[in-house]
Amino acid sequence: MKKNLDGKTMPLLAAGAGLAVANTYYSQPMLAELSIAFGTTPAVVAAIPMAALTGNTLGVIFLAPLGDKFERRALIVLTTVALALGLLGASIATTLWLLIAASFMIGLFSTVAQQIVPLAVHIAPIASRGQALGLITGAILLGILLSRTISGGVTEWWGWRAMFLAAAGAMFAMALLFAWRLPKVHPKATPSYAALLGSLWLLLAEHRTLRIAVLIQALIFAAFLAFWSNLAVLLAGEPYQLGPSATGMMAVIGAVGVAAAPAAGRLADRG
């Protein structure tokens, strides 16, 4: 494994995590355009980002734990290919319901980011694991924040299908890079899948702090989704009359905070 650990491995993992998580949010600035394209109401097209985040939630619960059972590189590559196929499906969807189904698959397999995080921590030197975690976390935050800016611009200039198609190409490329550059990491134990899922509930039952953190994050994410699912439609109507790129630019404000993640990682390394 050591021979694969050069200065390019960690940036590759950071880029992969950021690009993977971004896919869940590409649809949000394009909701007004999708409403027109499929001839339906904003309330109906809001099901698209909801499907993506529902898939993401289920992926965190049912797919992310597989890293403790299967070899991580192979799992990351396969999940990334599945994500690329979901994005390709979204780009050629001919009905709203097919796009909703593709969005669910995109959210489900975007959880490859949650497989990348433990791999990065595992292969990083002990003294710099906090810094590695900060790098990956910063990339994930950047992907979440700038995904809307990129999607808004691409959608306004080339259309929403082009955004999904470009994202599919990016993830196919990442799958090839992962297969080429990442080290193999085998799990130390091979518990049953049922035992893996059961351990999640045991953690919740045993740790009150974890339950509080889960509740706080759930409420934050609910507010986050409610805001972004309505913003594109609001800005497209009166009195604003703005397109997807203007909606995406709203995300740039939050990107400033991304710089805090690596700094927090370095502080963690100091104890």
Outline of this structure?
75% of the residues lie in helices and 0% in strands. By secondary structure, it is mainly α. Helix 5 (72-91) runs antiparallel to helix 7 (112-123).
Structure description:
The protein contains 14 helices and no strands. The chain has helices at residues 9-22, 31-37, 42-45, 47-62, 72-91, 96-109, 112-123, 129-158, 160-181, 193-206, 208-236, 244-249, 252-255, 260-269. Helix 5 packs antiparallel against helix 7. The radius of gyration is 19 Å and the shape is globular. The two termini are 28 Å apart. 41% of the residues are buried.
Kindly report the average pLDDT value. 87
Give the overall silhouette.
globular
How large is the share of residues in beta strands? under 5%
Distance between the first and last residues' Cα: 28 Å
Number of helices: 14
Spans of at least 5 consecutive residues with low confidence: none
Number of strands: 0
